[in-house]
Request: fold
Amino acid sequence: MVARTLYDKLWDSHLVNENDDGSSLLYIDRHVLHEVTSPQAFEGLRIAGRAPWRLDTNIATPDHNISTERSERVAGVAGIPDEISRIQVQTLDDNCDHFGIKEFKMNEMGQGIVHVMGPELGATMPGMTVVCGDSHTATHGALACLAHGIGTSEVEHVLATQCLVSTKMKNMRVNVEGTVGLGVTPKDVVLAIIGKIGTAGGSGHAIEFSGSVFRDMSIEGRMTVCNMAIEAGARVGMVAVDEKTISYCKGREFIPKGDLWLQAVSYWQTLVSDDDAFFDIEVELHADDIIPQVTWGTSPEMVAPVTALVPRPEDQVNKELRKGVERALDYMGLEGGTPIASISVDRVFIGSCTNSRIEDMREAAHVAKGRQVAGSIKQVLIVPGSQMVKAQAEAEGLDKIFIAAGMEWREPGCSMCLAMNADKLGDGEHCASTSNRNFEGRQGKGGRTHLMSPAMAAAAAVAGHIVDVRLFLSESSSTGVEL
Amino acid sequence: MKAFTQHRGLVGPMDRANIDTDMIIPKQFLKSIKRSGFGPNLFDELRYLDHGEPGQDCTDRPLNPDFTLNEPRYRGASILLAQKNFGCGSSREHAPWALEDYGFNVVIAPSYADIFYNNCFKNGVLPVILSEAEVDILFLELEGAEGYELDVNLVNQTVTSDSGEVFSFALDQFRKQCLLQGLDEIGLTLIQAEKIRQYEVEREKAHPWVYGAIK
Reply:
């Protein structure tokens, strides 16, 4: 039998039909819905008089457009002050009620950012195809799923048919060997990968992350990595099943139990690439070369080690790159040659589907503990990714650490990652952010985003400027806590 | 879905790479539960000098004079010419909705982000891929010729300039046929409903844990 990659296996096992025109009909096991990209799809179903193909494959929650202020959340949907936002959240509730789709409503336990919620509830299981009208759906690939974002027309298509018309992608493997040093997190690993292959480096490919760095990484860390596959142009990012995958899944709400669990586990263990499987592109990095990373520009590929200088346009190898760097520096208000670790920060955002899980909260709290936010900082938002993360963090007293340091502890949602709600940057403000996109205007018109890890963002909050978190960790290394 | 066979129109340039979907339609406009009306807010942050909000009348907002598409010579452009990795970032289908609502029927670029590319076909917008060198030729020609128009033919898969140059482009046949005929893709898939049901029966036997947990 021909050796297959993990992606090949997932593709093959979901193939309903190969059409004559070269496209394929791919079966979708899990469809995750949220308020922003679903209303037009439900409307389409209604207009065509169609019903969802089946209900037990769908799960919904509001996340993108909801307030993270407790005072606004307690009043429920009716209390959302912005009318257009209120209608959108209400529309998700109404559509889910009308069609019978399982929804975790705004203040219910279980609610959270779609890509935090799915895995933590066990709604995402290894070997599944998972889609959502959100480009960060690749996150679920950390559990060896074929998971990717789709547009609203495809949301409607999946609701109506449980299938997608797809064309097979190519295979790409990113292998990172070695052991990362103290203060180097999964976020740094994925930013370094994007820096190497570029923002379109994975276009048309499904990326499998392999090597000792990912084997040693927790499942939540793997989610951070897979989450940003799209920032390297790949719709799909994946890590093969291992013992960590199995133990992560065990006991979660929607995960099978008893005999069914045993059956599932024995299948899940086959979800690895065969030894001699073919990859169209192979990329190698070494852990020793990766130190904490920070973006200095307006694309995730504009990233550098925290110890580096902001690039100079005149040092670029061609005109196109020079123009790109010039434009980015102009937008960011930075001079080429400035040390990255001296850039002042106005606000700090720790959250998003990239970095809002309990391990991220612990990582940030470890740095914040016993320290104070610098006086020059206007705001530090800590936004847990879900109600469950929030409850767990509070049980561990992390909220108290953040509040004591002068940070704000918020309610779960997407928040300042895309700034659809009131959490946003002002014109010209620099933000140390654990989110995934540093595009112009992403976090607010004129806002200047620097992507980094939760530990680095917490350190920037304390220092008032971008700083190498490893300086903080060696100070407190006597506590014996490692990131 | 709207059909597309051929289109002749004025070309509007945006000479930059990595134009992301946040740029194409900023997030505040994603609060809408409709599919239409996004045109006035296409490229909102680049196009206007003030901050835009949904529901606002855009006719009297201050235009950014440095934004190329605001130049009088590009008013009414229906073919957008851009650089590589167009449409990267968020999966929001609001991006092609906004392009279409503004009046763009065609985008020409050396490459596109996968999700955006796919979304265009669902909305009667044709994303044409030409080589970087060919796109550079078009930028150059357009620079020197006011009222620069192109003919885009989906049947023949060609872009033709008035000087008679013909550039061919590739695309897959399924997407081509759907766009040519304006087919309802859901209707097409439902023709295979029996196959989907068969798949489900077999899958339920092999992987029973996939179903039924969410009620």
Notes: Chain A is about 35% helix and 15% strand. Chain A touches chain B through 83 residues (CB under 8 Å).
